[in-house]
Amino acid sequence: MIAENFKYAAPSSLQEAYELLHEYGDDAKILAGGHSLVPMMKLRFASPTHLVDINNIPGLAYITEEDGYLKIGAMTREHELEESSIITNKYHVFTDASKLIADPQVRNFGTIGGNIAHGDAANDHPAVMLALKAEVQISGQDGDRMVSINDFFHGFYMTAVQHGEILTEIRIPVPRNKFGSAYHKEERKVGDYATAGVAVAIEIDDNGVCTNAGIGLTNVNPLPMKVERSEAVLIGSRLTTEDIATAAKYAAEDCSPSEDLRGDEDYKRHLVKVITKRMLNKAIQRAKS
Description:
Blueprint (H helix, E strand, L loop, with lengths): L6 E3 L4 H11 L3 E4 L5 H6 L7 E4 L9 E4 L2 E5 L4 H6 L1 H6 L1 H8 L4 H4 L4 H6 L7 H8 L2 E6 L2 E6 L4 E3 L2 E2 L6 E8 L4 E10 L6 E11 L5 E9 L6 E2 L1 H7 L6 H14 L10 H24 L1
Parallel strand pairs: 1-3, 2-3
Antiparallel strand pairs: 4-5, 5-10, 6-7, 6-10, 8-9, 11-12, 12-13, 13-14
Helix pairs in contact: 9-10, 10-11
């Protein structure tokens, strides 16, 4: 199908983008990479009257560590996450996820901010953000505000970004102890939505005790899901085989998958249990190495 008619604008500054969003009203949509929005427009699932393309706005693509945070600009492309030395040396969960997102053509233009702001539990980065306990910076004419990723997803394609606002930055606390992270999803073929996916982040002190743990799930819950019961089992533990097995069991029990062509509920819960255990072991190995 072909998208309905729309008007297109390409502002060269954030201020200009805010003004256009307010001028055009609720029917305006922000265009970043476009790999989520454009297919929806072609299928007529979304029919914005105006597109505000933010690709020409400078200063929204960067990866840096400062002030105790890993800071990632919202317009940072997926391939930049794969190539960044900061990411590849420490934050392996991003390289794990980026390599599983569609194909190189998509990753060359798709943005991390767009992946999150789309508000889809089937996207990969929401689970990664939940595991890393991220915050997102949302900007508008009244200034910037920080929102915990735990409070960001409000419903299907609904997020904390309000009319006239733009997600501009992701902030992740820099780990204080030995740190490891990992992500994997099962998919029927390259580019398909995940049947199930799990992101894990672990910190371990010099005594071998887990000081911080994060687990996020992909496409097995109506909203991107943080598995709090599993995290609680791990924090303060020595990450024994039994601790890992219990955390994986809780992740499988607490998610709410729906039956579809990718599998029934029991199969998806089984996948969550298996992948959680594997990713925990992988993250722990990375932390210790």
